[in-house]
Design brief:
Blueprint (H helix, E strand, L loop, with lengths): L12 H9 L6 E2 L5 E4 H8 L4 H8 L5 E3 H6 L16 E4 H10 L6 H17 L24 H65 L1 H5 L5 H11 L4 H17 L6 H8 L3 H13 L3 E6 L5 E5 L4
Antiparallel strand pairs: 1-2, 2-4, 3-4, 5-6
Helix pairs in contact: 1-7, 2-3, 6-7, 7-9, 9-10, 10-12, 11-12
Keywords: Coiled coil, DNA-binding
Protein name: DNA-binding protein
GO molecular function: DNA binding
Length: 310
């Protein structure tokens, strides 16, 4: 809420605050021309992590107040929006200068140097006055324009240059982030393509097994092969993924060695299934006459053989 001032500021207040803090902080301007600023805004820009402690250490009570008290003194209501709470801590322009003078940020140095120059000039000459701008308005009724002190002007220029550099760095970071996102998207698309290729390959293998199962010569082959065994099992029952995983592991052993003598724990380790699930899969293969039990080994491991020639 910026109310009209009864008098013209010698230096534009927004530029003055920007030169002091490096930011365009929120401001309330009262009808008598006094300015108040949210303490949290100023402390944030000056690097104070604890605004209450900063106010207690550097700003006398006469230069800090809560929002409701400040607006109430002029019969004004609390501004709406922008987090203008009734209990918001405000500081006067003098309080802002005190906080800046207590700040150790290098960006505050030009402003503090100018403030010191003002004090020294007043001590030596009894007053300090701003120089009038070289070009004045043609209208005699227009307010007088003053030239901004060199230190303050230089501080504003440096802060603006810093902001421009920050904007450029932010733009570069955003471009790099966009590039990384595009690379991730491309990698995801490549991964999806690879998964589709794997799925197609598995379908081709399944089709090949089905064709082997339908080949008449397969049923009369005296010596079964792993492919013919798996094709026969696939034709006999609609297997789940777990059962098929176990079948793929035990079929080569049954064909090449004539029997399966491996402990359930070993099969579980090879298939990635639990011992209980492996046992259930073997039971299902027995139920559908794919394999049959032939006792157990001395260690207690079950022994299985092919139920019949394939």
């Amino acid at each position: 809420m910026n109310e009209p001032c009864k008098r013209q500021d010698a230096i534009d207040i927004s530029d003055f605050v920007y030169a002091a803090t490096g930011a365009r902080v929120r401001r309330l301007t009262m009808p008598d021309g006094t300015h108040w600023f949210p303490a949290v805004d100023v402390c944030k820009e000056l690097g104070h992590t604890n605004s209450r402690q900063a106010l207690s250490d550097h700003v006398p009570a006469g230069h800090r107040e809560i929002l409701e008290t400040v607006t109430g003194a002029y019969g004004l209501s609390v501004p709406a929006g922008r987090e203008w709470r009734r209990d918001l801590n405000l500081i006067s322009l003098e309080g802002l200068v005190l906080l800046v003078n207590a700040c150790t940020k290098p960006a505050c140095a030009p402003f503090k140097k100018w403030a010191a120059e003002v004090i020294a000039t007043v001590q030596q000459e009894g007053s300090y006055s701003l120089q009038k701008a070289e070009v004045q308005p043609a209208d005699p009724a227009a307010p007088v324009v003053y030239a901004m002190p060199e230190q303050v002007a230089e501080a504003i220029v440096r802060l603006e240059e810093h902001n421009l550099r920050m904007d450029e760095e932010l733009a570069i970071a955003q471009r790099e982030s966009l590039s990384v996102q595009r690379q991730l998207l491309a990698a995801q698309q490549e991964n999806l393509t690879a998964q589709q290729s794997i799925a197609e390959a598995m379908n081709r293998i399944a089709s090949r097994l089905d064709s082997l199962a339908l080949t008449p010569a397969a049923s009369t082959t005296p010596h079964p092969t792993t492919e013919s065994v798996l094709a026969n099992w696939r034709r006999r029952l609609s297997v789940t993924e777990d059962v098929w995983t176990v079948a793929v592991v035990i079929a080569p052993v049954l064909v090449e060695e004539g029997e399966l003598r491996q402990p359930l724990e070993s099969l579980a380790a090879r298939t990635g299934l639990s011992v209980h699930r492996v046992n259930e899969c073997l039971r299902l293969l027995r139920t559908h006459a794919c394999i049959r039990s032939r006792g157990a080994t001395e260690d207690g491991a079950p022994v299985y053989v092919l139920n019949q020639p394939v």
